[in-house]
Automatic annotation (TrEMBL):
<keyword id="KW-0547">Nucleotide-binding</keyword>
<dbReference type="InterPro" id="IPR043129">
    <property type="entry name" value="ATPase_NBD"/>
</dbReference>
<keyword id="KW-0067">ATP-binding</keyword>
<dbReference type="InterPro" id="IPR004753">
    <property type="entry name" value="MreB"/>
</dbReference>
<dbReference type="InterPro" id="IPR056546">
    <property type="entry name" value="MreB_MamK-like"/>
</dbReference>
<protein>
    <submittedName>
        <fullName>Rod shape-determining protein</fullName>
    </submittedName>
</protein>
<dbReference type="Pfam" id="PF06723">
    <property type="entry name" value="MreB_Mbl"/>
</dbReference>
<keyword id="KW-0133">Cell shape</keyword>
<keyword id="KW-0963">Cytoplasm</keyword>
<comment type="similarity">
    <text>Belongs to the FtsA/MreB family.</text>
</comment>
Amino acid sequence: MDKEMKSFSKSVSRIGIDMGSSQTRIFSEGQLLLEEKTVVAVDNTNDDILGFGTDAIIHYHTEPQRVRLEWPVKNGAMIDYYYTRGILSYFLKKGLKHSLSRPEIVMSIPSGLSSVARHALIDATMHAGAAKVYLVSSSAAAIFGQGISLGGSDVILSVVMGRDITDCGLFSCGGIVAQEQIAFGGNSINEEIQAYVRDSLKIVIGEEEAEVIKQSMVSIADPNAVKVFTIHGRRLVDGGAVAVEINTTALYQVIQTALMPVLESIERIIRRATPDMAEDLLRNGLLLSGGAAQLSGLNHWLSAQLGIPVVITKHSDLAVVIGCYRSFDKYRQFPDLIESGDKYYGGK
């Protein structure tokens, strides 16, 4: 975090948590305390929990026949209360191992999360060891993470692209002009790459290989920047292992087509802006965050399609969790953006 980074106090009482479908991050006092997979290892024979996060991955690779992996968060929402409470409890103890107090927590959520899902998440977090819980949308948190004020009259458009969800938000005067979430993220692009390789080359590749292909793109905004590389998979016809060369020429269209739901979501949000907001949008542009925002050339491609500047946030994969931490003390100033869990939990 450059100058932001500093020593971690043993009495941490406030933390930010970004609990995504793939990764969970915990941040406090200028330091990333934890970054691990949001995954649980479960014994197939008796359904006992064997481990969480990195420990779960180790269990799985050690005994793949005995162990299965469960991912308790999907599309930004908790799908298993028991596993989520367990993984939060484990991560809090691991990340705050020197702390003697129950922490206050600001958690990021997709903007479209239902009140029932919010209540369940807050309940799980309180039972995992929190003293108090606040919720903030990912798109708003990313703005706070950049130290940008939302109290003025400027219009700010924020888009966070994660593993399987994209959260868009348009904000002004400390309030929400428009918000939208869609079930699309970096994993969606991987799936389209897998489908293209299967249909055109008759080769089956895994998600990790698709991720390598995606990261090997020179720039999705420049189809003339061609790159040739080798991919590894299995022939569709007989399952035999194969390594073939592929160039990026055809992949540009595949990825750009895959990204259309994101583009259309942003366009819907922009159409909610009033004519008076147009000048701000042209000047401030779009703030792009999240792990998937690092796709080479994505900002330039979106800018060309939307006609406004697109700026990738500093530490784009950490912008949300940093913003969660920076959201403390802003609840009274921005009650429309930061929700107190007291309304669900009776203030206990």
